Amino acid sequence: MSNHHLILLFLISCLAASCTQEDIPNCHADEKVLHSLVSFPLGVAVDQTELNFNEAYEQIVSQQFNSITPENIFKPQYLQPVQDQFSWEAADQLVAYCMDHDMRLHGHTLIWHNQLPFWMEQFQGSPETWEQMMKTHIQTVVKHFKGKVTSWDVVNEAIEDDGSFRENIWLANIGESYIEKAFQYAHEAESAVKLFYNDYSLSAKRKKRDAVIELLNSLREKGIRVDGIGLQMHIAHNYPSNNAIAKALEEVWENDYLIHISELDIAINPLGREMPTASTSRLIKQAEKYKAVFEAYQEVPADYQHGISIWGISDRDSWIPSFFGRDDYPLLFDAMYQPKPAFCNLP
Ligand code: G3I
User: Fold this and answer.
1) What is the pLDDT of residues 155-182, one digit of tens each?
2) pTM higher than 0.85, yes or no?
3) What residue spans define the domains of the chain?
4) Considering 50, 157, 180, 288, which one is annotated as catalytic?
């Protein structure tokens, strides 16, 4: 009987009797090395301070994953805090960590509307000077990490759910062509690094996915290199459906884009109810959903699998509770860095 069946059986028995903490499928993190059990790179978003100073956190990163995405420190706010003064120290430490641990490094992110330094938000100039400023940022950063970063999120979250362009400083000051220019500048700076467009809700929102694929296809028709699409996959235990996820993955690779499930986390309290602890039934549903995402990804042809990256280590580290102002428990490890059913049940 598969793990999946076991969990279903458990769920049914939970309905008949009340579940106790002891009933939840559990395991010791030391019992397995998750990345060695899947055929694609398995990544995680890391916070540099936690990595440096939190032993339990660091141990999970180095044991369970073979790819890292910097959760924040590769964003413009951190890399170019003052115009033309780049700050490499923390980022270079992470590069060294990846090299020491034989881990892949995915760069996140070159062009976004968020986490920009103050000077960039306030920048004044003609479309040409804006373009030059964007080019300087992209090319300085990409060249600095040449040979060390395997792939970049070149443009992040440029399309709205309805398929229109997101209003941001790049669109306002350069125009729609900022996206193709960003990819072109990144390519000129390094031709070997994989270039990704990254966004959320690409499996849930059909119009958004269509618009992204159409946009990237039109860039390719102009000779611009775009290697892959990052589907962030900030989803919930009950949404979107497994079919919708499978369909989205299929459409992306059928359009010849590498697929990175780039920021996976699975909320169990999407409606923001009071939830001071995670209920057993929700943890089970979460475990099933994580498994379903991994299973859908296994169906993607190997040549198109850039990997799955989880957006954080423990529930204590997740962006969701503070961002949405609610209790939630979206990750594979609990706040005490103990494995949750979702971890035990993978892959
Ligand atoms: O750097 C300051 C620090 O000086 C200060 O002491 C601390 C106090 O709260 O805040 C620190 O900044 C925070 C930063 O994370 C670093 O920890 C910001 O307040 C906080 O807003 C920021 O949140 C990040 C968020 O992006 C910003 O939009 C999250 O950690 C990060 O997980 C999240 O990641 C994004 C992806 O990049 C793109 N896709 C969506 C995803 C989730 O929002």
Assistant:
1) 999 999 999 999 999 999 999 999 999 9
2) yes
3) 34-344
4) 157
